Amino acid sequence: MTLTQLNAFVLVARLGSVRAAASALGVSEPAVSQALTALRNYLGDQLITRGPGGMTLTPGGSRLLGTASQIVVLGAEAHAAVRAAQGAPEQLRVVATPAFAEFMVGPLIEAFTRRFAGAVEVSTGVAISSEHGVLVANRLADVAFGPGVTGENEMPIVSEPIFKYRLTVVAAGHAKPRGPVRQWRWLVDPNGTDPSTATAKLLTRLGIPESNIGVFPSQTAAWAAAADGAGVAPAIEHLVSQQLRRGELSLVDLPGLPMEECWYATFLEREYRSGAAGALRRFLGTPEAMQLMRSPGAGVPPSRFKPPVYVTIWS
Q: Strand pairing partners for 186?
């Protein structure tokens, strides 16, 4: 029985699929399946079974999960201790939902690293919000940005609000979409495929059928398509203000808009945080961080944003 096998088991159990676990670990799906098979053979228990309703833990798997999670966490702490003894930079692993990653992560991390007193090695990635708690609790991420994490009481994590924003809908110039809302063409970034995000909740509330939703790789791309007259796009109001001022886009008047929403930062509880994670939490409350989230500028060019943790799109 190895740490790799236990790590694979914990992530499959927590995330609900071999695919999601493989993405989190940065390995292939067969590698996760092989690790899980080896653990099953060693313990003589299936641990996880697949049925019509998804993956289910066996009684043995349920008992193993808590212990395995503790071992995985201890393994991560041991790795960090050895790195510190070797004088290696402290690691800071950041994951975020797509919109926050597109606009906020780059400016925030660049400003934070300028202020952080020690050497820090930062990696960034994109993750759907339902996986944030698992990643942070299992030390695969030090902070996750997006909706607040709920229902994770057994994990030593906390979600704290960091910035309020307003979600609205935009269309080309002064054009007004015609016909019923459900028949409009809706242009979204990957946030629209994550059921916990404000964008997905808006689409659900309006009853938009999947056939009328087009997913773009980024919010910027969705807004550009909307400006070209391809449809309407949900937008974070302060991030699209320049396009509104230039007349490239206009606000669409719909009941309940704009929606008041909030971004959260999910960390381990204070006593379990690394020094860099604790420093980042304090930085997020500074006027500089608030200003960056109000006016993040151009964001990070695609060539500079490389998600070494993983990218998962819900469907």
A: 213, 232
